[in-house]
Amino acid sequence: MVAIIGAGPAGSYLAFLLAKTGQSVDLYEEHAEIGIPIQCSGVITQEIESLIPLKKEIIVNKIKKVRFHAPDNSSFEVKIKEDYVFNRQLLDQHVASLAEQAGAKIYLNHRFHAFERKEKTLKINVKDKVIETDVLIGADGPHSAVAKAAGLYGERTFMTGIQAQANADIQDKHIVEIFLGYGSFGWLIPENEETGRIGVVGYGDCKSAFDKLMALKNATFLCHQSGLIPLYTSKIKTEDRGVFLIGDAACQVKGSTHGGILYGMLAAKDLATTLLEGGSYEKRWKKRLGLDLWLNLKIHQTLERFSEKELNRLVALFSQEKLKNILSSNVRDFPSKFLLQLLLKEPRLLQFSLKGIQTF
Question: Relative to the CA of 18, which of 130, 162, 184, 203 has its CA 20 to 30 Å away?
Protein backbone atom coordinates (compact mmCIF):
# COMPACT_ATOMS: atom_id res chain seq x y z
CA MET A 1 0.00 0.00 0.00
CA VAL A 2 1.24 3.49 -0.95
CA ALA A 3 -0.32 6.61 0.60
CA ILE A 4 0.27 9.90 -1.25
CA ILE A 5 -0.52 13.19 0.47
CA GLY A 6 -1.35 15.94 -2.02
CA ALA A 7 -3.13 15.67 -5.38
CA GLY A 8 -1.13 18.25 -7.29
CA PRO A 9 0.62 17.27 -10.54
CA ALA A 10 3.55 15.52 -8.80
CA GLY A 11 1.42 13.49 -6.38
CA SER A 12 -1.20 12.56 -8.97
CA TYR A 13 1.40 11.64 -11.57
CA LEU A 14 3.14 9.34 -9.09
CA ALA A 15 -0.23 7.79 -8.23
CA PHE A 16 -0.83 7.19 -11.96
CA LEU A 17 2.60 5.62 -12.53
CA LEU A 18 2.23 3.25 -9.58
CA ALA A 19 -1.44 2.37 -10.06
CA LYS A 20 -0.99 1.39 -13.69
CA THR A 21 1.53 -1.27 -12.59
CA GLY A 22 -1.04 -2.77 -10.22
CA GLN A 23 0.14 -1.11 -7.00
CA SER A 24 -2.46 -0.24 -4.37
CA VAL A 25 -2.44 3.57 -4.15
CA ASP A 26 -4.46 5.97 -2.01
CA LEU A 27 -4.24 9.67 -2.91
CA TYR A 28 -5.30 12.13 -0.21
CA GLU A 29 -6.17 15.78 -0.93
CA GLU A 30 -6.91 18.21 1.88
CA HIS A 31 -9.19 20.47 -0.17
CA ALA A 32 -12.75 19.83 -1.27
CA GLU A 33 -11.80 20.13 -4.95
CA ILE A 34 -8.59 19.26 -6.75
CA GLY A 35 -6.79 22.26 -8.24
CA ILE A 36 -8.15 24.85 -5.81
CA PRO A 37 -6.75 27.23 -4.61
CA ILE A 38 -4.64 28.17 -7.63
CA GLN A 39 -1.08 29.24 -6.80
CA CYS A 40 0.75 29.14 -10.12
CA SER A 41 1.70 31.49 -12.96
CA GLY A 42 0.37 28.88 -15.34
CA VAL A 43 3.05 28.56 -18.04
CA ILE A 44 4.90 25.38 -18.94
CA THR A 45 7.07 24.15 -21.79
CA GLN A 46 6.09 21.39 -24.19
CA GLU A 47 8.35 19.03 -22.20
CA ILE A 48 5.30 18.10 -20.15
CA GLU A 49 3.93 16.21 -23.14
CA SER A 50 6.80 13.75 -22.86
CA LEU A 51 5.14 12.68 -19.60
CA ILE A 52 1.38 13.00 -20.14
CA PRO A 53 -0.96 13.94 -22.97
CA LEU A 54 -2.74 17.27 -22.50
CA LYS A 55 -6.39 17.83 -23.33
CA LYS A 56 -7.09 20.82 -25.58
CA GLU A 57 -9.28 22.53 -23.00
CA ILE A 58 -6.37 22.69 -20.54
CA ILE A 59 -4.38 24.98 -22.87
CA VAL A 60 -5.60 28.58 -22.64
CA ASN A 61 -3.05 30.16 -24.98
CA LYS A 62 0.21 29.43 -26.78
CA ILE A 63 3.29 31.63 -26.38
CA LYS A 64 5.71 32.11 -29.26
CA LYS A 65 8.04 34.79 -27.87
CA VAL A 66 9.34 36.13 -24.57
CA ARG A 67 10.12 39.84 -24.24
CA PHE A 68 12.55 40.86 -21.49
CA HIS A 69 12.35 44.46 -20.18
CA ALA A 70 15.25 46.18 -18.43
CA PRO A 71 14.69 48.85 -15.74
CA ASP A 72 15.64 51.56 -18.30
CA ASN A 73 12.78 50.31 -20.57
CA SER A 74 15.09 48.74 -23.15
CA SER A 75 14.11 45.21 -24.15
CA PHE A 76 14.82 42.20 -26.33
CA GLU A 77 12.67 39.34 -27.64
CA VAL A 78 13.40 35.63 -27.91
CA LYS A 79 11.46 33.24 -30.11
CA ILE A 80 10.56 29.95 -28.41
CA LYS A 81 9.13 26.63 -29.53
CA GLU A 82 5.73 27.48 -27.99
CA ASP A 83 5.05 27.45 -24.30
CA TYR A 84 1.60 26.63 -23.02
CA VAL A 85 -0.47 28.97 -20.88
CA PHE A 86 -2.68 26.50 -19.08
CA ASN A 87 -5.60 26.30 -16.72
CA ARG A 88 -3.98 25.00 -13.52
CA GLN A 89 -7.21 23.68 -12.05
CA LEU A 90 -7.96 21.65 -15.17
CA LEU A 91 -4.36 20.39 -15.35
CA ASP A 92 -4.45 19.13 -11.75
CA GLN A 93 -7.83 17.49 -12.32
CA HIS A 94 -6.63 15.89 -15.55
CA VAL A 95 -3.58 14.25 -13.96
CA ALA A 96 -5.69 13.11 -11.00
CA SER A 97 -8.24 11.58 -13.39
CA LEU A 98 -5.44 9.63 -15.11
CA ALA A 99 -4.44 8.27 -11.70
CA GLU A 100 -8.02 7.34 -10.85
CA GLN A 101 -8.55 5.63 -14.21
CA ALA A 102 -5.38 3.62 -13.58
CA GLY A 103 -6.82 2.37 -10.28
CA ALA A 104 -5.73 4.88 -7.61
CA LYS A 105 -8.33 5.82 -4.98
CA ILE A 106 -8.76 9.55 -4.35
CA TYR A 107 -9.98 11.00 -1.06
CA LEU A 108 -10.96 14.69 -0.89
CA ASN A 109 -11.22 16.74 2.32
CA HIS A 110 -8.55 14.51 3.87
CA ARG A 111 -5.85 16.49 5.67
CA PHE A 112 -2.73 14.65 6.86
CA HIS A 113 -1.94 15.16 10.55
CA ALA A 114 0.76 12.72 11.69
CA PHE A 115 2.18 9.24 11.43
CA GLU A 116 3.92 6.68 13.59
CA ARG A 117 6.20 3.83 12.71
CA LYS A 118 5.33 0.24 13.48
CA GLU A 119 7.59 -2.77 12.95
CA LYS A 120 6.96 -3.15 9.22
CA THR A 121 4.38 -0.48 8.40
CA LEU A 122 3.42 3.13 8.98
CA LYS A 123 0.22 4.27 10.66
CA ILE A 124 -0.94 7.62 9.31
CA ASN A 125 -3.55 9.95 10.73
CA VAL A 126 -5.58 11.46 7.89
CA LYS A 127 -8.73 13.43 8.65
CA ASP A 128 -10.27 11.43 11.49
CA LYS A 129 -8.89 8.07 10.35
CA VAL A 130 -5.87 5.95 11.22
CA ILE A 131 -4.64 4.10 8.13
CA GLU A 132 -1.89 1.54 7.76
CA THR A 133 0.44 1.86 4.79
CA ASP A 134 3.80 0.55 3.63
CA VAL A 135 4.95 3.80 2.04
CA LEU A 136 4.11 7.46 2.74
CA ILE A 137 4.69 10.16 0.11
CA GLY A 138 4.66 13.87 0.87
CA ALA A 139 3.52 15.78 -2.22
CA ASP A 140 1.86 18.36 0.01
CA GLY A 141 3.53 21.61 -0.95
CA PRO A 142 6.21 23.93 0.40
CA HIS A 143 5.13 23.68 4.06
CA SER A 144 4.85 19.88 3.80
CA ALA A 145 3.27 18.37 6.91
CA VAL A 146 4.75 15.03 5.91
CA ALA A 147 8.26 16.51 5.80
CA LYS A 148 7.77 18.02 9.25
CA ALA A 149 6.38 14.80 10.73
CA ALA A 150 9.26 12.75 9.27
CA GLY A 151 12.01 15.15 10.37
CA LEU A 152 12.85 15.95 6.73
CA TYR A 153 11.79 19.60 6.70
CA GLY A 154 15.15 21.17 7.57
CA GLU A 155 15.94 24.83 6.91
CA ARG A 156 14.00 26.30 4.00
CA THR A 157 13.98 29.65 2.23
CA PHE A 158 10.78 30.94 0.66
CA MET A 159 9.86 33.63 -1.82
CA THR A 160 6.47 35.26 -2.22
CA GLY A 161 4.59 35.20 -5.49
CA ILE A 162 1.72 37.65 -6.08
CA GLN A 163 -0.41 37.30 -9.19
CA ALA A 164 -3.71 38.63 -10.48
CA GLN A 165 -5.83 37.74 -13.43
CA ALA A 166 -6.52 41.15 -14.98
CA ASN A 167 -7.67 43.08 -17.97
CA ALA A 168 -4.53 44.79 -19.25
CA ASP A 169 -2.70 46.42 -22.15
CA ILE A 170 -1.72 43.34 -24.16
CA GLN A 171 0.16 44.14 -27.35
CA ASP A 172 0.41 40.56 -28.60
CA LYS A 173 -1.30 37.58 -26.97
CA HIS A 174 1.55 35.30 -28.09
CA ILE A 175 4.26 37.21 -26.17
CA VAL A 176 5.06 36.80 -22.48
CA GLU A 177 6.64 39.92 -20.99
CA ILE A 178 9.26 39.68 -18.22
CA PHE A 179 10.08 42.83 -16.21
CA LEU A 180 13.45 42.97 -14.44
CA GLY A 181 13.63 45.27 -11.45
CA TYR A 182 10.13 44.49 -10.13
CA GLY A 183 10.88 42.42 -7.03
CA SER A 184 13.07 39.60 -8.35
CA PHE A 185 11.12 39.96 -11.59
CA GLY A 186 7.59 40.55 -12.79
CA TRP A 187 5.55 39.15 -15.67
CA LEU A 188 2.55 39.56 -17.92
CA ILE A 189 1.26 36.27 -19.31
CA PRO A 190 -1.53 36.81 -21.86
CA GLU A 191 -4.58 34.54 -21.85
CA ASN A 192 -6.12 36.32 -24.84
CA GLU A 193 -6.11 39.78 -26.45
CA GLU A 194 -7.58 41.48 -23.36
CA THR A 195 -6.88 39.35 -20.29
CA GLY A 196 -3.62 38.22 -18.74
CA ARG A 197 -1.87 37.12 -15.57
CA ILE A 198 0.23 39.85 -13.99
CA GLY A 199 2.58 38.92 -11.19
CA VAL A 200 5.72 39.61 -9.19
CA VAL A 201 7.99 37.30 -7.19
CA GLY A 202 10.42 38.39 -4.52
CA TYR A 203 11.39 38.29 -0.88
CA GLY A 204 9.08 39.69 1.77
CA ASP A 205 6.39 42.20 0.81
CA CYS A 206 6.15 42.47 -2.98
CA LYS A 207 2.93 44.47 -3.07
CA SER A 208 4.51 47.82 -4.03
CA ALA A 209 6.29 46.21 -7.00
CA PHE A 210 3.07 44.41 -7.94
CA ASP A 211 1.04 47.64 -7.78
CA LYS A 212 3.66 49.41 -9.89
CA LEU A 213 3.46 46.70 -12.57
CA MET A 214 -0.34 46.76 -12.56
CA ALA A 215 -0.21 50.51 -13.14
CA LEU A 216 2.38 50.16 -15.91
CA LYS A 217 0.08 47.80 -17.83
CA ASN A 218 -3.11 49.78 -17.05
CA ALA A 219 -4.47 46.62 -15.51
CA THR A 220 -7.89 46.13 -13.95
CA PHE A 221 -8.00 43.46 -11.25
CA LEU A 222 -10.23 40.41 -11.83
CA CYS A 223 -9.07 37.83 -9.27
CA HIS A 224 -6.11 37.28 -6.96
CA GLN A 225 -3.64 34.37 -6.75
CA SER A 226 -0.61 34.19 -4.49
CA GLY A 227 1.54 31.73 -2.59
CA LEU A 228 4.91 30.81 -1.15
CA ILE A 229 7.64 29.40 -3.39
CA PRO A 230 10.42 27.26 -1.88
CA LEU A 231 13.99 27.71 -3.07
CA TYR A 232 16.02 24.61 -3.84
CA THR A 233 18.74 23.59 -1.41
CA SER A 234 21.28 20.86 -2.07
CA LYS A 235 21.00 19.95 1.63
CA ILE A 236 17.41 18.78 1.26
CA LYS A 237 16.66 15.25 2.47
CA THR A 238 13.82 13.52 0.66
CA GLU A 239 13.67 9.96 2.00
CA ASP A 240 13.73 8.19 5.33
CA ARG A 241 12.57 4.62 6.02
CA GLY A 242 9.53 4.45 3.79
CA VAL A 243 8.76 8.18 3.75
CA PHE A 244 9.53 10.21 0.61
CA LEU A 245 9.06 13.80 -0.62
CA ILE A 246 8.39 15.07 -4.15
CA GLY A 247 7.63 18.39 -5.83
CA ASP A 248 7.41 21.56 -3.75
CA ALA A 249 7.57 19.42 -0.61
CA ALA A 250 11.09 18.45 -1.73
CA CYS A 251 11.99 22.01 -2.90
CA GLN A 252 12.30 20.68 -6.47
CA VAL A 253 11.65 24.15 -7.90
CA LYS A 254 13.66 26.08 -10.50
CA GLY A 255 15.26 29.12 -8.87
CA SER A 256 15.37 31.12 -12.10
CA THR A 257 11.70 30.90 -13.11
CA HIS A 258 10.26 29.46 -9.85
CA GLY A 259 8.37 26.79 -11.76
CA GLY A 260 8.17 23.30 -10.31
CA ILE A 261 5.56 21.26 -12.16
CA LEU A 262 7.86 19.55 -14.66
CA TYR A 263 10.63 18.87 -12.13
CA GLY A 264 8.15 17.51 -9.60
CA MET A 265 6.70 15.12 -12.18
CA LEU A 266 10.17 13.98 -13.28
CA ALA A 267 11.04 13.31 -9.63
CA ALA A 268 7.78 11.35 -9.32
CA LYS A 269 8.98 9.20 -12.20
CA ASP A 270 12.24 8.50 -10.34
CA LEU A 271 10.35 7.68 -7.15
CA ALA A 272 8.07 5.26 -8.99
CA THR A 273 11.15 3.50 -10.39
CA THR A 274 12.65 3.30 -6.90
CA LEU A 275 9.49 1.85 -5.34
CA LEU A 276 9.13 -0.73 -8.12
CA GLU A 277 12.80 -1.68 -8.62
CA GLY A 278 14.61 -0.62 -5.44
CA GLY A 279 17.62 1.63 -4.96
CA SER A 280 17.93 5.19 -3.71
CA TYR A 281 15.27 7.68 -4.76
CA GLU A 282 17.42 10.62 -3.67
CA LYS A 283 20.37 9.51 -5.79
CA ARG A 284 18.08 8.99 -8.78
CA TRP A 285 16.38 12.37 -8.77
CA LYS A 286 19.56 14.29 -7.93
CA LYS A 287 21.32 12.58 -10.83
CA ARG A 288 18.53 13.69 -13.17
CA LEU A 289 17.73 17.13 -11.73
CA GLY A 290 20.39 18.10 -9.19
CA LEU A 291 22.75 20.00 -11.53
CA ASP A 292 19.96 21.96 -13.21
CA LEU A 293 18.33 22.79 -9.88
CA TRP A 294 21.69 24.05 -8.60
CA LEU A 295 22.35 26.10 -11.75
CA ASN A 296 18.86 27.61 -11.61
CA LEU A 297 19.48 28.57 -7.99
CA LYS A 298 22.82 30.22 -8.85
CA ILE A 299 21.20 32.16 -11.70
CA HIS A 300 18.63 33.46 -9.23
CA GLN A 301 21.17 34.32 -6.55
CA THR A 302 23.39 36.10 -9.07
CA LEU A 303 20.56 38.23 -10.48
CA GLU A 304 19.49 39.15 -6.96
CA ARG A 305 22.86 40.92 -6.52
CA PHE A 306 22.53 43.00 -9.69
CA SER A 307 21.96 46.74 -9.61
CA GLU A 308 19.55 48.31 -12.09
CA LYS A 309 22.55 49.47 -14.14
CA GLU A 310 23.85 45.90 -14.36
CA LEU A 311 20.41 44.60 -15.36
CA ASN A 312 20.34 47.19 -18.16
CA ARG A 313 23.76 45.99 -19.36
CA LEU A 314 22.65 42.38 -19.21
CA VAL A 315 19.61 43.06 -21.37
CA ALA A 316 21.83 44.92 -23.85
CA LEU A 317 24.15 41.93 -24.13
CA PHE A 318 21.29 39.50 -24.67
CA SER A 319 19.90 41.69 -27.43
CA GLN A 320 22.59 40.22 -29.70
CA GLU A 321 21.29 37.72 -32.23
CA LYS A 322 23.99 35.18 -31.41
CA LEU A 323 22.73 34.91 -27.83
CA LYS A 324 19.06 35.08 -28.70
CA ASN A 325 19.57 32.17 -31.12
CA ILE A 326 21.00 30.01 -28.32
CA LEU A 327 18.05 30.82 -26.05
CA SER A 328 15.59 30.14 -28.86
CA SER A 329 17.00 26.72 -29.70
CA ASN A 330 17.11 25.39 -26.13
CA VAL A 331 14.44 24.51 -23.59
CA ARG A 332 14.79 26.81 -20.58
CA ASP A 333 14.03 23.96 -18.16
CA PHE A 334 17.60 22.65 -18.37
CA PRO A 335 20.27 25.42 -18.21
CA SER A 336 23.04 22.79 -18.10
CA LYS A 337 22.46 22.33 -21.84
CA PHE A 338 23.09 25.93 -22.88
CA LEU A 339 24.87 28.04 -20.24
CA LEU A 340 28.32 27.09 -21.52
CA GLN A 341 27.25 27.94 -25.08
CA LEU A 342 26.26 31.43 -23.92
CA LEU A 343 29.59 32.01 -22.17
CA LEU A 344 31.58 30.82 -25.19
CA LYS A 345 29.61 33.06 -27.56
CA GLU A 346 29.81 36.10 -25.31
CA PRO A 347 32.81 36.15 -22.92
CA ARG A 348 31.61 39.43 -21.41
CA LEU A 349 28.96 37.39 -19.60
CA LEU A 350 31.77 36.13 -17.40
CA GLN A 351 31.74 39.56 -15.70
CA PHE A 352 28.24 38.80 -14.51
CA SER A 353 28.89 35.17 -13.61
CA LEU A 354 31.83 36.24 -11.44
CA LYS A 355 29.40 38.28 -9.37
CA GLY A 356 27.61 35.05 -8.60
CA ILE A 357 30.73 33.47 -7.12
CA GLN A 358 30.00 35.48 -3.97
CA THR A 359 26.82 33.39 -3.53
CA PHE A 360 28.57 29.99 -3.66
Answer: 130
